Amino acid sequence: MPLINHNGVWAIYRTEMARALRTVWQSIATPVITTALYFVVFGGAIGSHMQQIGGVDYGAFIVPGLIMLTLLTQSISNASIAIYFPKFTGTIFEILSAPLSAFEAVLAYVGAAATKSVAIGLIILLTATFFVKVEILHPFWMIAFLLLTSITFSLFGFIIGIWARNFEQLAIIPSLVVTPLTFLGGAFYSIDMLPQPWRTLSLFNPVVYLVSGFRWSFHGVGDVSVAASLGFTAGFMVLCLAVLWWMFRTGYRLKP
Amino acid sequence: MPSILSIAGVEKHYRSGLTALGGIDLEVGRGEIFALLGPNGAGKTTLISIICGTVTMTSGSVTVSGHDIVKDFRAARATIGLVPQEIAIDIFSTVWNTVRFSRGLFGRPPDPAYIEELLRDLSLWEKRDSRIIELSGGMKRRVMIAKALSHEPELLFLDEPTAGVDVNLRRDMWALVRKLRDKGVTIVLTTHYIEEAEEMADRVGVIDRGRILLVEDTAALMKKFGKRRLKLTLQHPMTAIPAELADWPLELQAEGHQLLYTFDANAESTGIPGLLRRLGELGIDFKDLDSERSSLEDIFIRLVERT
């Protein structure tokens, strides 16, 4: 027996990617159109009346935040549906009865979800270049943040997918927690622009750290330090891994 | 026969307090067809689910081909195929893709030639590019079997393989089971039809309320419990059984309209010809006759009576 069931991991990864490719135009058109709308409204209509933020044009300023917004929602929805749907239809029995460790199952599902998110993130970046001049000061870190965020929030989505007992629960965390936090996380403004106590309260919003670090990789300035951004994202990833480890060990909502 | 499946002291208690399995010990030999016979809710599916890894057992141990299903789950599960009771396949996938997926999932490298043979055997080859959603219920069940066999398992579980299946598919299924046995595959099937167990299995285990009541060779079980009944519907009702018929254990039923004769199906002579002759001599006419085998229900009643 090989140490890793690479055929098994590849079978899931490939099937998950094929599922996305079946609706490829939909998967691409949605983020492209949404981003274009944001640029028309915020970049063109409103942005032309706004001053620069930290020496950056408003149109360019919102690019990292917009990518982050989509990255978070896409990662969570991709990964949560990927595991919730087999649970809902009963096909999960095959995954559970396969010679596949929890690590391998997570690797395959989360890997596929994160791959899709990264692809969409890059598509949005490309779309943005049609509207504003995008400069990336730290391309290596930009990619690193892109990957790290996609993986971390795909893990988070995977947890939601295992936890959810119905479609309402599947939608409740993304719509009630993640979307508000993303909007208040400084995607469209610098938290320095907020009056107190909102500025201090914002420091408790995890999304602030993600957007800030990502923005730093583009423009060289962020709301919080890069170390804090990286530390937070990595910390959240470790937390998600720990929860998943516990879920698989106890069979939580997977095995009676 | 060396055993391929060893189950020792397996218990399953749910947190709700329900005991699904109350200590199961069972050995299944390599290459045999074993039928797990029991009513709904007896614990058949729970036991199979534990062996396959979709349900966690409370205590006990199981080995498959010598591999512990918990400690050495990779090696154990790689040799197991499972066809569950319910049809569960990704309905948007094609037949070919879903079978190929299963093979990969169980760790085997691609083998298009083998999958082609499998699909041809199951009369699925023409449908290989159809999506599951377009298939009939019987075809979907065939796909479930193809998926379970995709990685060439040594031990195949068929959970209620013929429940809700038409005559054609049932016959195909039985033919397939025999073909697999000839190839050396061990088959464990669950059923609540005694005819099915009798038709297919080398050995039968009777399970009820989470316990194995007995394990026997099918032939021996039928001998022990295989009572048959002859039912005669009379032209004219009787008030009592004539003394001339005392040689046969008869019962009068349906207000004297029916005569019931119970006999041992395995005895050298059934006594039927003699009975019919005597009835003729006595001028007792009957308009219908019907014979039936003792049902699983009867077997259970008798088992429970004994224990």
From TrEMBL, chain A:
UniProt xrefs under InterPro entries: ABC-2_transport_permease, ABC2_TM, ABC2_TM_bact-type, ABC_2_transport
Subcellular location: Cell inner membrane; Membrane
Main location class: membrane
Coiled coil segments of this chain: none
Keyword Transport: yes
Spans traversing the lipid bilayer: 24-46, 58-85, 105-128, 140-164, 170-189, 224-248
Keyword Membrane on entry: yes
Domain ABC transmembrane type-2: 22-251
Membrane association type: Multi-pass membrane protein
Keywords in alphabetical order: Cell membrane, Membrane, Transmembrane, Transmembrane helix, Transport
Family listed: Belongs to the ABC-2 integral membrane protein family.
UniProt-recorded name of the protein: Transport permease protein
Taxonomic path: Bacteria, Pseudomonadati, Pseudomonadota, Alphaproteobacteria, Acetobacterales
From TrEMBL, chain B:
Record InterPro entries: AAA+_ATPase, ABC_transporter-like_ATP-bd, ABC_transporter-like_CS, ABC_transporter_ATP-binding, P-loop_NTPase
Highest taxon of source: Bacteria
Domain ABC transporter, residue spans: 5-234
Pfam families reported in the protein's UniProt record: ABC_tran
GO molecular function, one term: ATP binding
Keyword tags: ATP-binding, Nucleotide-binding, Transport
Name assigned to this protein: ABC transporter ATP-binding protein
